Amino acid sequence: MKLRRLLISGAAALAIALPGLAAAKEEMLHLVAPIADYKLYVAENTEKLVADTEAFVAAVKTGNVEKARALFAPTRISYERIEPIAELFSDLDVSIDARADDFEKAEKDPAFSGFHRIEHALWDANSTKGMEPYADKLLADVKDLHKRIDGLVFPPKVVIGGAAVLMEEVAATKISGEEDRYSHTDLWDFRGNFDGSKKIFDLVEPLVSKQDPAFVKKVADNFARVDATLDKYKTAKGYEPYDKLTDSDRTVLAAAVNTLAEDLSTLRGKLGVD
Amino acid sequence: MSASPPSTRLLRTAALGGAALAVAGGAAFYWASQQRGAPVAADAVTVAVTAKACEPNALTVAAGKRTFEIVNKSDRPVEWEILDGVMVVEERENIAPGFRQTLTARLAPGTYAITCGLLSNPRGTLTVTPSEESRAAASRLDVQGLVGALSEYRVYLLRQGAAMVRASGDLSLAVAGGDLAAARAAYRTARDAYLRAAPVAARFSDLEAAIDPRAEYLALREKDPAFTGYPRLARGLFVEETLSGLAPVAERLAADLARLKERLRSVAVEPALLTESPAKLAARLAQGRAERAPGLAAADRADRVAALSGLAKAAELLLPVAARPAPKAAAELEDKLVAAFAAVDGGAAEPAFAALGDAFSKVDTAMNGGEK
Fold first, then answer.
1. Could you say which of B33, B151, B268 has the minimum Cβ distance to residue A172?
2. pTM, whole model, 2 decimals?
3. Least CA distance to B91: which residue of chain A?
4. β-pairing, B64-72 with B58-62?
5. Mean pLDDT of chain B
6. How far apart are CA A196 and CA B191, in angstroms?
7. Alpha-carbon distance B39 to nearest alpha carbon in chain A (angstroms)
8. Contact B141, B275 (CB under 8 A)
9. Between chains, do B119 and A111 touch, taking CB under 8 Å as contact?
10. Does B316 touch chain A (CB under 8 A)?
11. Is a pLDDT exceeding 80 seen at residue A76?
């Protein structure tokens, strides 16, 4: 119990040192359960990512282009959901998810690897030729990621900040169609980032709703708007290609995502995890 | 045990223009999300990313909350990261060519790497020197670190709960199927998960009396109808070497563990779970247990190892948080933990558990009173 008192006084000291961090105190302990539940959510997703990547990699290695194409986006979605945590590991983030732009020779660079390297082969070359080593590496990396995340004590500010990070990610790379430029499966990734952001918000919502119900309502409304717009592009097997997204829907999404990114960036301050 | 890495921080100033963007779409959003010539904190450290490198390529700042202004002088979008080994301490993504963005990070003293555009470009270095701010922080409790540690402990407890329930189901099936070897294996798995959660499970005396009763406290000892749960199963599996009569015991255990799992979920995780609860359990383990049948020697040893690994988990999570405000007590806890692992196999397990319990208590005291 003594340590608990210290925790409270520690949080109070922090609140004095950093203006705007009022009401930290007990709320810091209230974050324990949401952060633990978030880790379990991330663990479920990395388990699924490993299983799905195994099937995807098997399709690539047996030269089954059609099947590999079908598995590409549904496999990635688990990664996109947990990006705030996954991208903490810079080496794996590069080898799993880097884009061609990050390499000197772009698509021709032998170091260009991971999902987007294979995506390029599947859609641009319509072939899995030469992809075997990249496929093996991808699976090894995804397993390594799963293991590392399992051993990671989740930093509260990364978890709480993750809600906004995912929306910024959507704004920068999904609304522009930049990320999945060969397959045009961006709407799947969009859905993954959206799910991941909403999960974090849902977990801490009870902690914020007391102090700021108007904020909670505004965020929930914008989440609902994005959700409904994305759902218009749902198909039996997943999501329409990115180029089917109409200009007016893109405008709706951009506005809602922009507002969400901005609003969610205040979550850390509201919860005292600056 | 390694110290925790400097806390990671993903501050997003999200300088996203508001109303204008609400009407613009797609690419416009992306471009407008970049700042050009916006005002930056006067003491910001400016670093340019060119096509080939960072300029300057070596930065030195004092520890504390620092702001960096990143200018993209290359012709591609760049990401700028501060790295501690492979871990991202802070990053700013998607800085468009010709644009600048700021990043604020709370940095502990040490040497970090910075990324500089293309992955093949050489990385720069960021040296963070000790400051008044970092010296003051050194003696303060890392509140976020503690919240992180407690969250991780909750994850651990929930996982043990799930594991014990799953394994007790396997145990029931094996007993019903007459498979002694499978029953022994499932018993071990279910027992390990239970013991790892023991510092907290021990709080629920009603369940403990059914799950893990001690024969010496029962009127008729092993013959007592209240001799149930794990000890009754162990007696059948390892001493009598028969599954006869164990089916209802295994089923009852599975039901009790399912209730325990729910209780573990409802426990409010507070700092005492990392200090007082392990201290109590270690003290209890130090009392040893009454003479048991020779057939149980291996099972008892495995029990000690599982209980110790549960205590080690609490210590592993507590140590990085305790290291700053209570360095001596933290070092002692680590020593006593190592000694307890060494003693599990030898004859001196009890004194080692007693010392470990004291060490947990001392950390609690030291973190409150400070170390002289």
1. B33
2. 0.87
3. A88
4. unpaired
5. 87
6. 35
7. 19
8. no
9. yes
10. no
11. yes
Q: Which residue pairs from A100-105 have beta carbons closer than 8 angstroms and sit at least 24 positions apart in sequence?
A: A101/B76, A101/B77, A102/B79, A102/B118, A102/B119, A103/B118, A103/B119, A103/B120, A104/B118, A104/B120
Report the distance separating Cα A32 and Cα A39, nearest Å. Answer: 11
pLDDT one-digit tens code per residue, B217-260: 899 999 999 999 999 999 999 999 999 999 999 999 999 999 99
Query: Are A274 and A18 spatial neighbours (Cβ–Cβ below 8 Å)?
Result: yes
| A6/B141 touch (CB, cutoff 8 Å), yes or no | yes
User: Residue A3 has what pLDDT?
Assistant: 52
Predicted ipTM of the assembly: 0.88
Q: How near does any CA of chain B get to the CA of A208, in Å? A: 18
Within an 8 Å CB–CB cutoff, is residue A164 touching chain B? yes
List C-alpha distances in Å: B23 to A229, A249, A265, B20: 16, 11, 21, 6
Residue A97 in contact with residue A116, Cβ under 8 Å?
yes
| CA-wise closest residue to A157 among B164, B10, B22 | B10
Tell me what pLDDT residue B366 has: 86
Strand, coil or helix: B32: helix
In chain A, what residues touch B146 (CB-CB under 8 Å)? 7, 10
Spatial contact of B47 and B70, defined as CB atoms under 8 Å apart: yes
Q: In chain B, which residues have their Cβ closer than 8 Å to the Cβ of A91? A: 86
In angstroms, the CA A70 to CA A157 distance is 36
pLDDT of residue B370: 53
What local confidence, expressed as pLDDT, does residue A242 receive?
A: 93
C-alpha B99/C-alpha A158 separation (Å) is: 26
Q: What domains can you pick out in chain B, each with its CATH number?
A: 1-36+274-372 (no CATH), 43-131 (2.60.40.420), 147-265 (1.20.1420.20)
Q: Which residues, at least 6 apart from B168, have a Cβ–Cβ distance to it below 8 Å?
A: B186, B190, B250, B253, B254, B257
**Is the CB of B155 less than 8 angstroms away from the CB of A40?**
yes
Q: Taking residues A48-70, report their average pLDDT.
A: 98
pLDDT at residue B198 tops 90: yes
CA–CA distance, A200 with A156 (Å, rounded to integer)? 11
How close, in Å, is residue A199 to chain B by CA atoms? 17
**Beta carbons of A258 and B154 less than 8 Å apart:** no
Q: What DSSP string runs through B123-182?
A: PEEEEEE--HHHHHHHTS--HHHHHHHHHHHHHHHHHHHHHHHHHHHHHHHHHHTT-HHH
Mind giving me the DSSP string for A172-213?
A: IIITTT-TTTTT--HHHHHHHHHHHHHHHHHHHHHHHHTT-H
